[in-house]
């Protein structure tokens, strides 16, 4: 991964990235899934803790080695296997249907063909599958062995971007994905995009949580518009 960070005043997003890397370190390397497996993992991860989604993913994979037969799995079978995830009812239906769609369109449950596609076309193709939104589609392209240059924005990332005023207060994940990606330096590669997502998620799980931000301890406190407004409110008579 190559990052060329300017020595002069950096763009806000670069300053944030640099500060978070100082606080949390570099993203640890982890084995990558093939894109079809990453798609399944992404669906299991929606609003679910990483530990739970990993456990459920392995259980599903063990029941359907190489994903053979997953397209024919009944709702009851899926429910039994994935019932622990937050949106189990939704994805017990959507996962087999998405696999069916891919097999009927491409002849196999294999997304390797997306490697040569432009990112926008690949995102659009994936988002037409049942249960696949922009975050799952982006994760399929960026986190998998495809390693495409696309930013993954989850709810942590969206909340922080709103507080930092990198996006508007009502921006959706779809709008934020495109707005935030345009703020990233042109010479960042797919690995830098992935690290940026990882750093923002770490911040969202530690200091900038949904329950309430701990601005006093946050490594971004002097860079953040939200923190500045809060401090002013506290110092006003
Ligand atoms: S300073 Fe506060 S609002 Fe800003 S990113 Fe940190 S925790 Fe979130």
Explain what the structure shows.
The chain is an all-alpha fold and 237 residues long. The chain has 2 domains: 91 residues, Helix-hairpin-Helix base-excision DNA repair enzymes (C-terminal) (Endonuclease Iii, domain 2), CATH 1.10.1670; 108 residues, Hypothetical protein, domain 2 (Endonuclease III, domain 1). Helix 2 runs antiparallel to helix 7. The chain is globular. The mean pLDDT is 93. It binds iron/sulfur cluster. The site of iron/sulfur cluster (SF4) has 14 residues, from helix 8 and helix 11.
What's the CATH topology label of the largest domain?
A: Endonuclease III, domain 1
Overall strand count:
0
CATH architecture of the largest domain: Orthogonal Bundle
What is the number of domains? Answer: 2
Q: Considering the protein shown, what is the CATH homologous superfamily of the largest domain?
A: Hypothetical protein, domain 2
Gap between N and C termini, in Å?
A: 49 Å
Average pLDDT reading: 93
Molecular shape? globular
Distinct helical segment count: 11
Hetero groups:
iron/sulfur cluster
Uncertain parts: none
Radius of gyration: 19 Å
Q: What's the helix-strand series?
A: HHHHHHHHHHH
Beta-strand percentage?
A: under 5%
Derived structural class: mainly alpha
Which CATH top level class of the largest domain fits?
Mainly Alpha
Helix fraction, binned, reads: 55-70%
Largest sheet: none
Keywords: 4Fe-4S, Endonuclease, Hydrolase, Iron, Iron-sulfur, Metal-binding, Nuclease
Organism: Phyllobacterium phragmitis
GO molecular function: endonuclease activity
Cofactor: [4Fe-4S] cluster
């Amino acid at each position: 991964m190559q990052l060329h960070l300017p020595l002069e005043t950096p763009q806000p997003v670069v300053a944030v990235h640099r500060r978070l890397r100082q606080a949390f370190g570099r993203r640890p390397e982890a084995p990558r899934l093939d894109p079809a497996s990453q798609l399944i993992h992404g669906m299991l991860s929606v609003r679910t803790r990483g530990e739970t989604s990993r456990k459920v993913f392995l259980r599903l994979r063990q029941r359907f080695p190489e994903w053979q037969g997953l397209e024919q799995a009944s709702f009851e079978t899926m429910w039994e296997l994935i019932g622990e995830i937050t949106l189990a009812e939704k994805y017990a239906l959507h996962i087999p249907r998405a696999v069916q769609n891919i097999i009927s369109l491409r002849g196999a449950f294999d997304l390797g063909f997306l490697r040569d596609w432009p990112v926008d076309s690949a995102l659009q193709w994936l988002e037409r599958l049942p249960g696949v939104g922009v975050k799952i589609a982006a994760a399929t392209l960026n986190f998998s062995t495809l390693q495409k240059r696309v930013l993954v924005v989850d709810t942590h990332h969206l909340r922080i971007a709103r507080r930092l005023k990198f996006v508007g207060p009502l921006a959706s994940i779809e709008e934020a994905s495109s707005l935030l990606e345009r703020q990233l330096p042109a010479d960042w590669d797919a690995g830098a995009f992935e690290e940026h997502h990882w750093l923002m998620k770490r911040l969202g799980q530690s200091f900038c949580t949904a329950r309430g931000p701990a601005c006093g301890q946050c490594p971004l406190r002097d860079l953040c518009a939200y923190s500045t407004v809060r401090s002013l409110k506290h110092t006003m008579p």
